[in-house]
Write a structure and sequence with these properties.
382 residues; alpha/beta; Spore Coat Polysaccharide Biosynthesis Protein SpsA, Chain A; eight-stranded mixed beta sheet; 11 helices; 8 strands
Length: 382
């Protein structure tokens, strides 16, 4: 049992810690810089919205405060068949230059963006969500990277706000700091293989229209990688969003996002070719595919160590691994109970977030293998 346990432990530890260390080392060795310059191309800020009446006005006001030259910036709200007051609210700001593109029939975020992009001639497009708050200089910080002809897409820097102090929020913030460190290292390695859905800038001329049931946040970056472009992380292009306060909402979102990522990976599978894309394939296998399979390896480790404890009760190594797992999962259970009782403890957020993300990955894997991804979904805002 011990050799199998060691293999499973190695995979899990490599996925969460070894890969991060590897990116930091390779990033330092390659140290691929971006040639930045204070260029001012025409930019279209595209805000995706479906029934966003609760927050769209704040988003518009935030967008109007951006310091990018007004004559160079278009603000476009793409309403995907909204049935609330979203369109009415957006129309109030027509005199301020805010444009409304309404797509009838609720076709889904990807198709709505496809339709809107087809009518845009601006050099750079920035995708944003209806609840994301941009720093005033965010657009300038994004577009300066396009002075480098190798750069096709730029990912912004998301910083989560946790106003409620929830356990889920604490876990989400810590996880995102971990992800951000990896994004910085991947840029120095050469390129990212993903971008921030709520703040992504790209060259309009190289955009690929995707099928409606493909989540573009994950797949569109892979299309840019296939075309030979770099995707880079811009640390100074800052945006803010509130963390999710309820584990149930985070779980549903993670199922959708991970499932979309799996479907997108199948669609853009050429990037997995290690001969053509050695860096990208390493990143995708290590940081995506293995991450999505962690619940499978985790369940296997539980089963194997349980059998090992029963068969070899004198084996100290197996016993320690078994107890550590049991303690970790019991802590996550306690965190979930505390959440239901309205009690907050940020330390407990780490095991809780781990369980939420990985149980979501398992469900996403099953759904990907057994059913087709839908083009639309309902968004939780708490």
């Amino acid at each position: 049992m011990t050799p199998l346990i060691l293999v499973l432990l190695f995979i899990i530890l490599y996925t969460y810690f070894g890969y991060m260390l590897l990116t930091l080392i390779l990033g330092r060795l390659r140290n691929k810089q971006v040639k930045k310059s204070n260029i001012r191309p025409n930019v279209a800020l595209m805000i995706a919205a479906y029934n966003e009446e609760a927050g769209i006005e704040e988003k518009i006001k935030n967008s109007l405060l951006l310091t990018y030259p007004k004559e160079k910036l278009r603000i476009i709200v793409v309403s995907d068949g909204s049935t609330d007051r979203t369109d009415e609210i957006v129309a109030k700001y027509e005199a301020d230059g805010v444009e409304l593109v309404r797509v009838e029939g609720r076709v889904g975020k990807t198709e709505a963006r496809n339709i809107a992009v087809s009518n845009i001639l601006d050099e750079i497009i920035v995708f944003s969500d209806g609840t994301t708050e941009y720093a005033p200089n965010a657009i300038e910080m994004l577009v300066r990277n396009f002075a480098d002809e190798e750069v096709g897409m730029v990912s912004g820097h998301l910083k989560y706000k946790d106003s409620t102090g929830s356990k889920m929020g604490a876990g989400q913030k810590l996880y995102w700091k971990y992800e951000t460190a990896i994004k910085k290292a991947q840029t120095y390695m050469g390129s990212l293989t993903g971008s921030l859905g709520c703040m992504t800038a790209f060259r309009r001329s190289s955009y690929t229209s995707l099928p409606a049931n493909i989540i573009e946040d994950f797949t569109e970056p892979l299309m840019f990688v296939q075309k030979g472009f770099r995707i880079v992380f811009e640390e100074e292009a800052i945006c803010h969003e509130e963390t999710t306060t309820k584990s149930s909402n985070e779980w549903r979102m993670r199922v959708r996002v991970i499932r979309g990522g799996m479907t997108g990976m199948l669609f853009a599978n050429k990037v997995l070719n290690p001969v053509r894309f050695p860096v990208a394939s390493l990143q995708l296998i290590s940081h995506k595919i293995l991450r999505w399979l962690i619940p499978v390896f985790g369940l296997a480790l539980i089963i194997v160590t349980t059998i090992g404890v029963a068969q070899e009760p004198e084996n100290l190594f197996i016993g320690i691994i078994f107890i550590l797992q049991l303690s970790f999962y019991l802590t996550a259970l306690v965190a979930l109970i505390f959440e239901k009782m309205g009690m907050h403890n940020k330390i407990l957020g780490i095991p809780l977030y781990f369980i939420v993300v990985n149980s979501a990955a398992l469900v996403a894997l099953i759904k990907t293998l057994t059913s087709r991804l839908e083009a639309t979904w309902e968004t939780d805002r708490t």
